[in-house]
Fold these 4 entries.
Entry 1:
Amino acid sequence: MFDPVSPEIARPVPADRDGPNVPAFIQRHRSFFMLAAVVAAQLLLLSVQITRNNNVRLIRYWTVAALDPFERSFGGLMKVCGNAYNTYRHLWHAEQENRELRVQLVAAQEQIQRLGQQATETERLRAVLDFKNQFSFQTIAAEVIASSPGERSNAIFIDKGSDSGLTSDLAVITPQGVVGKIVAIFPHSAQVLLITDPSSGAGVTLAQSRVQGILKGGNSSFCDLHYVMDEETVSRGEAVVTSGLDQIYPKGLPVGTVINASNGNIYKDIIVKPAVDLNRLEVVLVVLKPTPAEQQAFNGGR
């Protein structure tokens, strides 16, 4: 049975000697802690009452001395952050200005290029107009709108046709020289066969020797001069002009320059470089057929 007065139940449990007993430690040294608290209170009261130089209380002096390193560090950090922010802001504004300047530079370059192209076009048109005014025959100016497809195109299309009074077999020229002749006519356009085409032909004369021949297109961007005898003297660099005998090209127009001449079996092998850069044609002149009265007056003037 359960016995309330049993010695085993009433015996107290001994404290664990291995773990610290904090309340017992404080109770045992209570006098020391009370003395330390009193001394701390006295120091605090004295620091409030005692003043140093310039009437600064000691506690304030201690507080400032304790917090001054943190305040200096915080102030330095704030200064560094402020400088970094200002630097970033200046860099951002500089980047924005650089972008605006780049845009303005591109626009200025495009405008300069456009003005340069306009100036070049104006000079080219002025040269064509001056040549047209000085030329003895009536001409019509036309723009090149296309070229025949193919890697080595020997034909172009112009923006004038039968509605402008054009017909086939009309000479096409520039102020630099002969371009070709019209081979197909349409209401609003026409096809021009260039002098470099093998099927083309033009009566020409060597400017110095006055030897005549037939100019035809070669296998490249050059032309071949046929039917010049081997005994004839042909110099490299000699100019070649139209003879007028083909009844298509007016007499005396520049055709090209001799770049090579060698003897063959009977006739010389002569290569002629065209006077006109046929790969850069933009504006040409179509020579209209003169009336009988104009042709008679022209021949009489010769």
Note: Residues 58-134 form the longest helix (77 residues).
Entry 2:
Amino acid sequence: MQREDWNRKYAQNEQLWSAHPNRTLVAEVEDLEPGRALDLACGDGRHSVWLAERGWSVTAVDFSEVAIAKARKRAAVAGVRVAYRRGDLLDFEPAPGTFDLVLVLFLQLPADERRVVLSRAAAALADGGTFLLVGHDLLNLTEGVGGPSDVRVLYTPADIAAELPGLEIEKAEKMLRDVADADRPAIDVLVKTRRTIGYETSS
């Protein structure tokens, strides 16, 4: 989808996504020591605000100006500060070695574009930093519910793990996610990695 499409979706829906943070994010991050976080494709700010409320210093980026405006309003209502930036992730280059946590949640891009974003996201991690990706699995197209219908923007845990050289893979798995009013769950990808000091890949 193009920026104009996302702007329209955010403008037409008071709340496009759940008011609550993704439960996988909560489970994987809530025990981490707060530091500097980068939320890529932050949408209307539900994850960046949740992090800021827990003491993280958050930078959040999305290419929809309508989403960024909603995110800033959400942060103001919550009484937290988040550094929101409107930008295309294909152009955005975070400073290397800067962030203790980098999030990529439900960013669905064609593989060549996804590799660009993931490469920069991995490089942005500080030593000991955590990278977390959650997205729609390829199998969701035929056996799950919701999500994109374009096979080009779907992937598997193995696809993502292979695109993160230099990081230690902690988890790379499929997950089932219950969806309200659906007769079957959605199928998600979860990949969690760390940049361990002195870690080298075997490839």
Note: The domain at 33-194 is CATH 3.40.50.150 (Rossmann fold).
Entry 3:
Amino acid sequence: MDDGRAHVAEPSGPPVGGVLVVHDWYGRLPHVRQACDDLAEAGLLALAPDLYDGRTTTDPGEAERLMAALEGGRARTRLADATDELRARTGGRRVGALGFSMGGMLVLEEATRGKFNAVAAYYAALQPREHPPIRCPLLLHLAEVDDWEPPDVPERFAAELRAAGTEVETHTWPGTEHSFANPDVPLHAPGPAAEAWAITVGFLRRHLATDP
């Protein structure tokens, strides 16, 4: 179901949990809706808000312009509203988040505010020591080649969280670049993307499939 604001995919039976799915800088392309549908098949109710109001692209230059035009406060408000809707739809069950690139950064920032019970983020990390701790379990999928400044940001981010007691699982996928899990753009790497997705679904089910 898509009402223009969000794509919602519901499982055939009662949901065992909910997942907020947040798109990358290209916008809510078809693979985001497919991810929601796949999560629903795994028993999780998935909701993907559209932060770009229907605009999408597969051109990196245009994607950069779309992201630059996204006002941070407005994006946080939309994510907060979407998370509230997700909690209502799942009857108060556990809620997690899945974000890709820009979306990964946004859900990690929301996780520092204690919004989720589990988070999976693709090619995203926060700068160490510039954020409150994340208390929920965290899964990071990283590309082998990415333009982090400095290059060790993901490793330092994960190490800092582990030192604070956060459960962190990381996977760096050989032969991949940023956006490797996005089948709508040329950098897609089908093999690693499929393996990463299987891990993601298992992680989210493991941490969210509990009774209220």
Note: Strands lie at 6-9, 17-22, 44-49, 95-100, 119-122, 138-145, 168-177.
Entry 4:
Amino acid sequence: MTVAVPAAGAFNAIPGRGVRATVEGRQLAAGGPNLLASLDAIPSLELQSFTDESAARGQSVIYLVEGSRPLAAFAVADAVRPESAEAVRRLHEAGIEVVMMTGDIRAVADAVARDLGIDSVLAQVLPQDKAANIERLQQQGKRVAMVGDGVNDAPALVTADVGVAIGAGTEVAVEAGDIVLVRSDPRDVPRIIKLSRASYRKMVQNLWWAAGYNIVAIPLAAGVLVPWGVLLSPATGAALMSVSTIIVAINAQLLRRTHL
């Protein structure tokens, strides 16, 4: 069966809401619940029932609207990547709260959150409101890491304490992120957290070693123990300083053994 698709003109995108175009002289728009709210469009009981059933299955609904009258609804769903649940589990094991911020309706977002074990959900968030939501979390005393890949995520990535951009995402998001993941694998997020914590531990260990070593070695080299017959020659002092540097370098190399 062949279906003739008429050409669309005067096409334009409505950020965070949907798209609008003229088709055969009719002004049509397509988008989610935010589009309906902006047009004061109220779906019929049949379309609302369809929406509720789709939301219960974790599916988003896209509406076709003419003027302020919804004509049809289409259920769509993104397949949840199997590694996402593992990524959330690893973040929980690391003591990190996971928040999902999405433009989808609450019912769909809650269904996905239940499947993945996500702690809390910010639903029906418009692109311009993402950064404000990050700021609200920060005002609660939380340090926020934002993971995103789209143009609309860029302000939130900049606002967050740490912005993690997906390398396969848009260039704007990559430029805005503090960290760029080469792969599109959500499990890399807990990996970089584990690596950063291990790196910090090594820095503290080396700092304490270097400081403690110098606190003891410098007075010895200055001749503090000369009255007791202990005197370090310049050559011995230089050798001991080299040993300290070698120990710090070896300890840093042990970071390679961190299992990610």
Note: The radius of gyration is 28 Å.
